[in-house]
């Protein structure tokens, strides 16, 4: 199975990062979102990311121009029709993802692969909404995509060996490290990570320590590059809450129940870096 043309649905933080990584490895990419402003912001983010590499002398201005030239922005999902692989990176919402996949399913060639960057939603459940569950797979990239090496590869119940092998091989060509996991709520990454973040929020709510102290303990004592509360701000507190809800509903264990303080902050619109305020404050 030879993958040559890529489509990415969603031009946000994850979508533009995924598009950049493919374009840097020579793949033509169409990056699709619902508004021109979203697409333009995604292209600008890729430009900014590549400019940092130029400044570090990791790439030249000529290479930067070549990479940008491989990324086409669009607001028309029909522009994905010729893709061999489509990676969905829209909001972490089952209904929204299902709508996207049903539309793509009717547009793509019969051999095209559908994949999702979901961080917690069942691959099997999403695949069942399409006519190609054997060619449906999870590709969970880590943020920031151009920097982080891991790609969590998640097979649905019907995902074929051929599809899995093709995506593992492709991930290696991207100079990523593919790690295969099974389809359970939160997979491995978020099933382990989110309870830690949630417990850190409980520590803050209960007055065990300040946000700075909690993060310092984990950075200096556990050698984490980023404390759990700062990491939650980077991920987005709304996304953290969504993932915890998926874990709680999917596994039925109260240990995954979201901390009331996390819910309160999401209700207030304090979502982390993207809003300028979360557990810490940021310049927007």
* Radius of gyration of CA atoms, rounded to a whole number: 19 Å
CATH class of the largest domain: Alpha Beta
Q: Tell me the structural class.
A: alpha/beta
Number of helices: 11
Description:
The protein is an alpha/beta fold. It has 2 domains: 6-181, NAD(P)-binding Rossmann-like Domain (Rossmann fold, 3-Layer(aba) Sandwich), CATH 3.40.50; 190-275, N-(1-d-carboxylethyl)-l-norvaline Dehydrogenase, domain 2 (Orthogonal Bundle). Helices cover 47% and strands 13% of the residues. The longest helix has 20 residues, at 36-55. The radius of gyration is 19 Å and the shape is globular. The N and C termini lie far apart (43 Å). The relative contact order is 0.10.
Topology:
Blueprint: E1 6-9, H1 13-24, E2 29-32, H2 36-55, H3 61-69, E3 71-74, E4 85-88, H4 94-107, E5 113-116, H5 123-127, E6 136-141, E7 150-155, H6 161-173, E8 177-181, H7 189-205, H8 211-222, H9 228-235, H10 237-251, H11 260-268
Parallel strand pairs: 1-2, 1-4, 2-3, 4-5, 5-6, 7-8
Antiparallel strand pairs: 6-7
């Amino acid at each position: 199975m030879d993958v040559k043309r890529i489509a990415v649905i969603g031009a946000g933080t994850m979508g533009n990062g995924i598009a950049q990584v493919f374009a840097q490895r020579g793949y033509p990419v169409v990056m699709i979102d619902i508004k021109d402003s979203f697409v333009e912001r995604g292209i600008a983010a890729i430009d900014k990311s590549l400019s940092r590499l130029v400044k570090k002398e990791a790439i030249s201005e000529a290479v930067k121009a070549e990479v940008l030239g491989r990324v086409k922005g669009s607001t028309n999902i029909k522009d994905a029709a010729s893709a061999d692989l489509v990676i969905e990176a829209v909001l972490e919402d089952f209904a929204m993802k299902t709508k996207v996949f049903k539309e793509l399913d009717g547009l793509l060639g019969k051999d095209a692969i559908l994949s999702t960057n979901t961080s917690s939603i069942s691959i099997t459940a999403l695949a069942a909404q399409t006519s190609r569950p054997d060619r449906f797979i999870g590709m969970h990239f880590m943020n920031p995509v151009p920097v982080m090496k891991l790609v969590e590869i998640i097979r649905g119940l019907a995902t074929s060996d051929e599809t899995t092998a093709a995506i593992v091989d492709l991930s290696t060509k991207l100079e990523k490290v593919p790690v295969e996991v099974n389809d359970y709520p939160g997979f491995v990454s978020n099933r382990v990570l989110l309870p830690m973040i949630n417990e850190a929020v409980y520590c803050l709510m209960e007055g065990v320590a300040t946000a700075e102290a909690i993060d310092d303990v984990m950075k200096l004592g556990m050698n984490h590059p980023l404390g759990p509360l700062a990491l939650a701000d980077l991920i987005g507190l709304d996304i953290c809450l969504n993932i915890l809800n998926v874990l709680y509903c999917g596994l039925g264990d109260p240990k995954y129940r979201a901390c009331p303080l996390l819910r309160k902050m999401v209700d207030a619109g304090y979502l982390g870096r993207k809003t300028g305020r979360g557990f810490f404050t940021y310049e927007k």
